[in-house]
Structure formats: structure tokens, C-alpha cells
Amino acid sequence: MDRLVRLVGGAILVAIGVASIAHILPAGTIMGVIATLVGLVFFGTGLTRFCLFYQLLGVDTCNAP
Question: Where are the transmembrane segments (predicted)?
């Protein structure tokens, strides 16, 4: 479930960020860049199944034994 949320949420954030950078949404360029970067990090952790923050906290959301 965590992976799916990261993939979908990351893709949505990237889309919002790119739309803001292109001035399609009125969020501003800086917010667009931030949203794009955060979305890329979320999407990347969803693809690789590795989150450094979770590892530092000892959290495991994988169902594998």
C-alpha cells in the first residue's frame, strides 16, 4: 500500500509542479520546483522500494518475511 501511495502521490506532485512551473496553475515557480522535487523523491522511493528515512527509523512496510 505504501508503495502505491508513493507512486501515485509522487506522479501527482510532479504533474502539479510542472503545471506550476509552466504557469498553468497559479502556485508559483518556486512552489512548482519544490512540488516537482518532492514528487520525484516519492516516485523514486516507490520505484526502488527503498526509503532512507524509513531505514533510519527502522520502519519496514514490506510484507516480505
Answer: 7-25, 31-52
- The answer to whether residue 63 is domain-embedded is no
Main-chain dihedrals φ then ψ at residue 58, nearest 5 degrees: 80, 25
**pLDDT tens across 14-35, in order?**
999 999 999 999 989 999 999 9
Range of 27's domain? 1-57
- 49: three-class secondary structure by DSSP: coil
Cβ pair 35, 13 in contact under 8 A = yes
CA distance 6 to 21: 22
Q: Does 5 fall in a domain?
A: yes
pTM: 0.79
Q: Per the structure, how many domains does the chain have?
A: 1
